[in-house]
Amino acid sequence: MKACHGIVPVLDDPNLVSTAGLVPVLELAESAGLSDVIDEACTLPAASVVVKARTVIAGMLAGADSIDDLNVLRAGGTARVLGPVRAPSTIGTFLRSFTHGHVLQLHAAHRRLLAGLAAKVPALVGADDLVFVDVDDTIREVHGYAKDGAGFGYSGVRGLNALIATISTPSTAPVVAECSLRQGSTRSGKGADWHLKRTLTTVKAVTGPTQQVWVRGDSAFATAKNVAAAVKAGAWFSFTIPAWKTVTRAISQIPETAWTPIEYPDAILDEETGEWVSEAEVAETGFTAFVSHPKAQQVTCRLVVRRVRRLGDAPDTDQGELFTTYCHHAFITNTTLSAVEADRHHRGHAIVEQVIAELKAGPLAHLPSGKFAANAAWLTFAVIAFNICRAAAVAARTGKARMATMLRTIIATPARLAATGRRLIMHLPTSWPWAQAWTNLWDTATGPPTPAPS
Q1: What residues does 289 pair with on adjacent strands?
Q2: How confident is residue 340, by pLDDT bands cut at 50, 70 and 90?
Q3: pTM higher than the cut 0.85
Q4: Domain-by-domain residue ranges, the chain?
Q5: DSSP state string for 98-157
């Protein structure tokens, strides 16, 4: 290694590109209709809406988590390979010009783009028999007193509430089908059925006709309206249900012989019997949910319960020895799978937390504006960038690579530009460890749609 005092840095080369991987990633998005859907859906009274939207999305893909970070696209020769970009000050004005109606138009563009990405890269959603729709929300903490809509929510911090609905399968990573920015004090399940209905409509556009859709959610989303939305769309549902009196009464009536040991974290397989030795067990019983609602809104379904033996001292409770000995985790469902299989798949709902974590570690590290609609637009652009990145990972055949991995291995590939005749050549690093993945992405982005998996 040479000592740093022997190196002379000179920032003077206009032909260097630090994020050459943006070229095939954005080409993939364009082939799926990125510019067209934004141009057709958005009536924002601003000049060059498509160019500004592309600037925000490209910047997020390059790692930007604030408006100022978008300047990364204006360095070296990046603009020569990406097309026109706009300055951060221009983008700030652009975001502040959004109204609630314009944000909804951007949502429509996002849904159409997701369908285009699924058509361009069919393996994005895959051909599994089951398609999961997961809904959850999170609080994005904000600071200062000039944030429209900020408030104290369930997390106890001051922020804004972001609702996220994802689509995934057992073999594919999730993509975001729906998002919404809400006031910080909003209850998690408030208005979720409206977003769920739109998500289920989007699912039809990106999945096959024989795939079974399964809606999953935690207890905050266990409402009669959400169940009704799933049933009306012909989907299965499973929602974690709070410990209502009707629930605890139903659990207490399950006979001891009905409990089945399940494979669970830290469970031990008995090689002689082939059974799992675990403190976790599953049972089910018939149940009628939402009995406080009118008869037409009540739901007759299955109550599947997983119980885990408590460790340490049991808390004080008036529910009897059964509830002091075990922790019970119950959910309602209309699936036709066994209780063990239903429980295993329902636990997979936690995958939506991975999406939220990726967004918070990337473009949602900040909500950059004091104006609520501007932040709502920023969230939607972040979701668009997330889905494009997910499609790029599938096209590059890197499996379920996350946004940070794609940035490090594919997008942040350095290049040097050279012109010959009328062609612009990008000279990429020799022996680049992810050269094959880069080439796979390039071929998919510039070629015809990939055949759907059989």
Answers
A1: 299
A2: very high
A3: yes
A4: 14-124+369-447
A5: --HHHHHHHHHHHHHHHHHHHHHSGGGT---SEEEEEEEEEEEE--SS--TT-EE-TTSS
